[in-house]
Write a structure and sequence with these properties.
This is SnoaL-like domain-containing protein. This protein is an alpha+beta fold. Helix content is about 30%, strand content about 50%.
């Protein structure tokens, strides 16, 4: 595990919790590409800035905890499972997910998020 990559991802996640837009942007390359787990995609820091401004007006990340993590050094890729909780438009939401985060020159180049329901059932 590359400690620098882990620190960058933690800075990105905690930037959301503290609503620190600059902290988030500092982790990203100018040509960053982010796919949210429910469909929206953002390309470049200009779009990311607009997204953050709009999101922070309507919502608040309550927690975003990494539960498992992996690093592929050859592909400069960090992968993590997480639990996310927020308050958005006065509605509380919680779900589990996973991110695949690709780095270039010690900054985030790409984030792909995937979501699962927080409530898991065991039918057997």
């Amino acid at each position: 595990m590359n400690a620098t990559h882990k620190q960058i991802v933690e800075a990105y996640f905690t930037g959301w919790i503290s609503q620190n837009k600059q902290q988030i942007l500092d982790t990203l390359r100018e040509d960053v590409y982010i796919e949210e787990c429910y469909g929206p995609c953002y390309s470049g820091k200009k779009q990311i800035t607009t997204w953050l401004d709009n999101w922070f007006k309507r919502g608040e990340v309550l927690s975003w905890n990494i539960t498992e993590e992996w690093f592929d050094q050859k592909k400069d890729t960090y992968m993590c499972k997480w639990q996310f909780e927020c308050l958005y438009k006065e509605e509380k939401g919680r779900f589990d997910g996973m991110s695949i985060i690709i780095f270039a020159n010690n900054q985030i180049k790409t984030i792909e998020e995937f979501q699962t329901t927080a409530k898991h059932e065991y039918p057997y």
